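ugh ok fine here u go
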Amino acid sequence: MINHRNAMILCAVLAATSACRRRRAPDGQTPNANGVSNANNTNGAGTPGTSSASGPSAPGISGTQGQSSVESVPPTPATGCPAQQPNSALGPGTVHTEHITTNETWTLEGSPHRFPNGIVIEENVTVTVAPCAVVLLGEGRTFHVGGGGAVMAVGEAQRPIRIGSNKNEPQPGDWQAVSFEEHARASSRLAHVTIEHGGATSAYGEASCFRSRLAGTDVQHVTLRACRGYGAWLADNGSFSTTSTNLVVRETVVGGHSHSGAVYLQRANAVRTLPEGTYTGNEINEIAIGTNQAVDESGTWRNPGVRYHIADDVDLRIEGPRSPVVQIAPGTTIAFGSNSSIAVGWDAEGGLTADGGSEQGRITFTAAATEPNAGAWEGVYVGERALRSRTKFNWVTIAFAGGDSGYDEACAWNPQENDGALYLSSALPAENVSHVTFSGLPENAAAIVRVFRGTAVDYGAAALGNNFGAGTACKQSPVRGGEGCADNARCD
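structure:
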C-alpha cells in the first residue's frame, strides 16, 4: 500500500507526469482525484492517470488497465547516473511487483528499480525506461515482454541504461533474460543499454541475457556482458531489425551449459539480420546456428569477426519460392558440426555467392571440432536448381569435408569411396570455381564430385588457381556422359 506521504515522495523523485500534477482539464472533461483528465491516451493504452484501488497513482504511470507496480518508494531520490554505478553503491530504490498492467516510466530518480519476482509486461502496456535508470531482477527471474506489450529503453551514449541482477555482488546466471514474445509490439526498442549477469537456466530456450521470438527486434548500441550460456538467443521468427547496430557481446561464460557462445540463432534466416558489432572476448567466440530450416530470404552473412557454427546433423539449405541468394562476406568462417552440410538449389531455386575477392579475404568452410579428422563434415552441395550465375566459390577454402554422405549419383571412381568436398549437380562455369583450396579430405575422396551429366567442365585448369592439395587422391570425379558412367572410370 502506498500512503499519501510516499506518493508525494514519488512525485518528488520521479519524472513529473500527469499522475503527479494537478492541471486544468480540456473543455468538456473533468479531472479525476489526482487532478488528471480522463482524456484518451493517444497510444491506445487506455485512460491516463486514474487512481487504483490500492491508493494514489504512482508517478510516471498512466492508464486504467491496472494499478501501479510500485510497492515501496526510495527515501530520497537517486542522483548522478545510477546506471554507471555498481550495485553496491546504489540505494534501496523502488521496489515493484511482477505484473505491469498499466503504462509506466522507470526513472533515474527512482533507481534502482527492483523486481524481486521478475517482470511481466502485459498486453497493450508500454514501459519506458529513462536514461541512467537501473532495473534489477531477482534470482532466476525474467524481464518478460508479453504479446502486445512494449518496452522503450532508450538511453544515451553518456547516459546509458543498465538491466541486471538484484544482488550486490552479481555473477553470470543470477537471473534469466530480457525476453520478447513473438507478438510483442515491434515498436519496442533498446538503445544504449547494458544487460548483464543473465543466463539462469530456462525452460524456454538456451541460457542467455537476451531472448527474442520477435521479428525485427530493434537493438542499437546494446551491450550483453557477463552472461551465462549465450549473450543473445533468437528462436522461431526472432530476428534483428534493419536499424539494429553496434551489438556488443563480451565476457559470456559456459557456466556448466552444454552450449555457449556470443549469439544463438535457431533459424539460419536470421543470420542476414545480425547487426554489425563486437562478438569477441567470450569463453567461446562464435555465432551458433541450430536447426534445419531452409534459408529462403536473400541477404548477406556479414563477417562478425568470429566463426559461424552450424550444429551437428544440420542440412543447411539455401532455396525457396523467392529464389534466395546468400552472399558470404569476405573473411568469413563457417564451421560445420558432425554430419552437417550446406546445399544450394536442391529442391527449389537458390544461389550462394562465396567470393573472398583475394587471399586476404579468403572464406573458409571447415569442421567445428577443435581437432578435426578428415571427413569431419559432409561438404557443399550444388543442386540442379542452383542459380548458376549467382553460385560462386572464389578464394574459398573447404577443409575436412568428405564425410559419409550416402550420395551415390556420381560415377564411382573407387570401390571404397564415393564422397567428396564440393558436389556439383549443376555444371557451374569454370570461372565460378577458382582459387579454391581443398584440404583435410579422407583418403580416396574427391575434391570436386561432378555429378552433372554431359560435357565435362574442367575445374583443374591451372588458370583457375584451384589447389587440390598434395594428399588429395582425386581432384575431380569422372563425369556421367550420355551413355552413363564409363567402365573403369578414373579421376582427372
